[in-house]
Design brief:
The complex is a heterodimer of chains A (517) and B (354). With 517 residues, chain A is an alpha/beta fold. A 6-stranded mixed sheet of chain A has the order 6-7-8-3-9-10, sandwiched between helices. In chain A, helix 15 links the parallel strand 19 and strand 20. In chain A, 32% of the residues lie in helices and 25% in strands. Chain A contains 18 helices and 22 strands. Chain B has a two-stranded antiparallel ribbon with strand order 1-2. Chain B has a single domain, classed as ABC transporter involved in vitamin B12 uptake, BtuC (Orthogonal Bundle), CATH 1.10.3470. Chain B is 71% helix and 3% strand. Chain B is globular. With 354 residues, chain B is mostly helical. In chain B, helix 2 crosses helix 12, helix 4 packs parallel to helix 6 and helix 5 runs antiparallel to helix 10. The chains are: A alpha/beta (517), B mainly alpha (354).
């Protein structure tokens, strides 16, 4: 069961038997049996919606199970709240952090801890925290306020919080989604130390190579069921992908374009403020040509959102210009920008890309319902709108019973297809796609990638913003790396290995790469 | 002993039949509560309720009075309903009604010698504009500066109502009776009666036209699309190219204008002069009616008619059984509360956490 060269006691610390959870219309967990041993890193692998997070939320007391039993160290337990879970030695690091922004790192870690005294000795707590930091390689300034620290550091605080509560079983829900390759390495070092100390790590992920790298054991979930269990030395990426999806998967990788066309889109000396009032984009300039995909790589929160907002027309820049085919679009309204032929696939598909509570057919024309043939004079032409919507549903394989459904009822992948259909069907000259496949299952992501490459082949200039560095590397002809609102450099296809791009994402300029390596 | 814990869980796709059933259940529950109050007052609730429906529907006179009461309620109901569709929380239909009434009175007591149809048309136009302008202020403040519309629309009611009082106590005080009410409007400015031996007036036609117009706007026009989109998610609507500022202001203006027409009707169709209490809260009832009608024009019309029944019937009941007619307000209030609670349960369901 474990690496043969490692002598480990086989103490079963956790056993979940026959766990079943029904959500309206979905069987999220279907009689799942899951076990974990002391001192191992076990991965829960599966696509979005496979039931990984649901299972772990049941273990952590955030969901109530419909059926099944949980045993900790052989003893049956009832876990009805996160407090019960913590009392049973279970800790969870969530995908979305649960930290108090104006508080310091130390304050966040000790927040809610039971104490005998009415007063808090911050110094004493700080010393203890420092001890933990050194032991596990989880370094953060204990006096820094949460809003001042990076995403990777916030995650370390979350792990410290869990360790401080004496967790024996530590659940990490997609912990690498927000990290750079270097930060992932650091995290893995920490996880290995924890394993040596006899902690049990449950690692939730859908990234195959990470799972293969870190796990002692891999449990694969699909549509709420356990479909396989294996160890890294007995399997491969290809086999895991097949288990996870249920069919062969082809990774879509773009090829060198025949030749670049004219320059379509240009950003010059652009600066913009963030909502929090600091300069999030600092004097950046780039161009995108016809038939080119320019990928924007960077850790979340380094100016990508502000760049998207400025180009989409929902944020006014403080300086600089945005130009589409020699026409200025700087500071124009979303409506004007749409009309000038910019296609926008926004990061926030639920709150910007779609209006969820109107019918599907209206969402498919919402950006141009006021143009013929969809309307005439003051009135809408529903006949035209619906037949157009039906055409798009067919052409883009949007899974829906009919076009009259309320948009909210569609699944994540289909919602993204709705946006894609609406945008691409207008044959934009320039397309900005931000996190186009985040949270989508492999099949839907594959489809989106294919369609983007098709648009590129037609001569569309595409700006692709993504936190998934693999997606950027696979699709882009050129990569622009953003760090704290500045461009660290442009990387041509295949010019640099992934690790070097990772270094640029953490603030090393391209010119300086040779100096540190 | 541990108490069972409950929590609210969002329903993925709430059943349609439930949405239609909710107003009826809400009305049923509010009648139950009212029955308790009537019982506590030592009267028989069955005979009281019978009196309400008999008084409102059982006689020709009663039925006509129900229509008279429904006339302004349809207008304030549809005005609020339109505003709520855009999530412009117009609590100010009462003030907008008074604005319309004030403007129409001003035109009416000027005694122009105009042909009646033209005079009436002008009354409607002026009343609509006055209501619009009164709603424009909070609409603009919300759209442009994100000032809370519930507060502004509500407070502007008081400004308008006290302004009307001030005018009636002062410059417009009836010189003959010296009551705080205006003199009579010109005969040729009065709405025609629709039926002989009744007070039902042309305002009912205006109300029905308003229902149809709002229905067409919402369902079939570009403006309606913008209103619905803005109401469903203003941020997304703006991102997707809809001018949400303009949409909210336009919605406020149309909503206020329609509420203003309710005021015109009360002056030109019913009282023929302006008094301080020309509306016993029709603007506020409009909120309940809009919610009860599910923000749908047909639903609003039915809800307004129902409220017409309650108000007319409660007056009859009060005379016949001695139960105070304030029971009508109780029914309205409870209906709104139950309605809001039920709407929550429509979107969410209660789950027991074991």
């Amino acid at each position: 069961m474990f690496d043969s060269n490692k002598e480990k006691p086989m103490e079963k610390i956790l056993s979940m038997q026959g766990i079943t959870k029904r959500f309206p219309g979905v069987l999220a967990n279907d009689h799942i049996n899951f076990e974990a041993y002391k001192g191992e890193i076990v991965s829960l692998l599966g696509e979005n919606g496979a039931g990984k997070t649901t299972l772990m939320k049941i273990l952590y007391g955030m969901y109530s199970k419909d059926e099944g039993e949980i045993y900790i160290k052989g003893k049956k337990v009832e876990i009805n709240s996160p407090k019960d879970a913590i009392d049973n030695g279970i800790g969870m690091v969530h995908q979305h952090f649960t930290l108090v922004n104006p508080f310091s790192v130390t304050e966040n870690i000790i927040l809610g801890l039971p104490g005998e005294k009415a007063t808090i000795d911050l110094e004493e707590a700080k010393n203890k925290i420092k001890e933990y930091m050194d032991r596990y390689g989880l370094h953060v300034d204990p006096d820094a306020k949460i809003w001042q620290i990076s995403v990777g550091e916030k995650q370390r605080v979350e792990i410290l919080k869990v360790l401080f509560r004496n967790a024996e079983i530590i659940i990490l829900d997609e912990p690498t989604a927000v990290l750079t390759p270097q930060e992932v390495d650091e995290l893995f070092k920490t996880l290995k130390i924890l394993r040596e100390e006899g902690k049990t790590i449950i690692f939730i992920s859908h990234k195959l190579y990470e799972v293969l790298e870190i796990s002692d054991r891999i449990v694969v979930l699909r549509t709420g069921r356990v479909v396989g269990e294996t160890t890294p030395d007995k399997t491969s990426r290809r086999e895991l992908a097949k288990m996870m999806v249920g069919k062969e998967v082809i990774e879509i990788i773009s090829e060198e374009p025949p030749e670049l066309g004219e320059e379509i889109f240009k950003v010059e000396n652009l600066s913009a403020m963030s909502d929090r009032g600091y300069l999030a984009l600092k004097n950046i300039s780039f161009t995108v040509s016809s038939g080119e995909i320019l990928g924007v790589a960077g850790v979340a929160g380094n100016g990508q959102k502000e760049l998207e907002d400025v180009i989409s027309g929902v944020r006014k820049p403080v300086d600089g210009r945005v130009v589409l085919l020699d026409k200025e679009i700087t500071g124009k309204s979303p409506k004007e920008i749409i009309e000038m032929g910019v296609g926008r696939i926004p990061e926030d598909r639920m709150e910007a890309g779609l209006i969820l509570d109107i019918p599907l057919y209206e969402n498919l024309v919402v950006e141009y319902f006021d143009k013929p043939p969809f309307s005439k004079g003051l009135f809408l032409n529903y006949k035209e709108i619906k037949s157009y919507a039906e055409k798009l549903v067919k052409e883009f394989d949007i899974r829906t019973p009919h076009v009259n459904v309320i948009t909210r009822t569609l699944s994540g992948g289909n919602l993204q297809k709705v946006i894609l259909a609406r945008v691409i069907s207008r044959e934009p000259k320039f397309l900005i796609a931000s996190q186009p496949t985040r949270g989508l299952d492999v099949g839907a992501a594959e489809y989106i990638h294919e369609r983007l490459l098709e648009e590129r082949a037609k001569g569309c200039a595409i700006l692709l913003i993504s936190e998934d560095l693999d997606e950027i590397i696979n699709l882009s002809d050129r990569i622009m790396v953003l760090y704290e609102g500045e461009i660290m450099g442009f990387v041509n296809r295949g010019e640099l290995p992934k690790e070097e791009i990772g270094l640029m994402m953490t603030g090393t300029r391209k010119e300086a790469l040779s100096e540190i390596s | 002993m541990r108490f069972p814990k409950f929590r609210l869980e969002k329903r993925p796709s709430p059943p349609t039949w439930l949405r239609i059933a909710i107003p009826f259940i809400a009305i049923g529950i509010s009648f139950l509560f009212s029955a308790i109050i009537i019982l506590l007052a030592g009267r028989n609730p069955i005979s009281a309720f019978y009196a309400i429906f008999y008084g409102a529907l059982g006689t020709r006179l009663g039925f006509m009075e129900t229509l008279v009461k429904a006339t302004p309620l349809i207008l304030t109901g549809i005005a609020v309903s339109l505003a709520f569709t855009a999530k412009f929380w117009n609590i100010g239909a009462e003030g907008q009604l008074y604005a319309g009434a004030l403007a129409a009175t001003w035109l009416g007591i000027s005694h122009f010698s105009l042909p009646s149809p033209i005079y009436i048309f002008l009354m409607i136009v002026v009343g609509f504009i006055a209501g619009s302008l009164w709603a424009l202020i909070p609409g603009f403040l919300k759209a442009r500066f994100k000032v809370d519309d519930v507060v502004t629309t509500l407070l502007m009611n008081y400004i308008m109502i006290y302004m009307v009082s001030a005018i009636l106590e002062g410059p417009w005080r009836d010189p003959v009776t010296s009551w705080p009410q205006s003199i009579m409007i010109a005969k040729n400015a009065e709405y025609p009666k629709l039926f002989a031996r009744s007070r039902v007036h042309f305002g009912l036609i205006v109300s029905i036209i308003a229902i149809i117009v709002v229905y067409v706007i919402i369902k079939h026009t570009k403006l309606g699309f913008r209103i619905r989109a803005t109401g469903a998610n203003a941020k997304a609507a703006y991102f997707l190219g809809i001018n949400t500022i303009k949409t909210i202001i336009l919605t406020a203006v149309i909503s206020g204008g329609i509420a203003g027409l309710a005021g015109v009707g009360e002056v030109a169709g019913l009282h023929f002069h302006l008094t301080e209490n020309i509306s016993p809260g029709y603007g506020y009832s409009g909120i309940v009616i809009a919610m009860l009608g599910g923000l749908h024009p047909i639903g609003v019309m039915l809800a307004a008619f129902f409220f017409g029944i309650i108000i007319t019937g409660a007056e009859y009941m009060s005379r016949a059984t001695g139960v105070t007619s304030f029971i009508a307000d109780v029914i309205q209030g409870i209906t709104l509360l139950v309605m809001l609670a039920m709407l929550l349960l429509y979107e969410y369901r209660i789950r027991r956490v074991e």
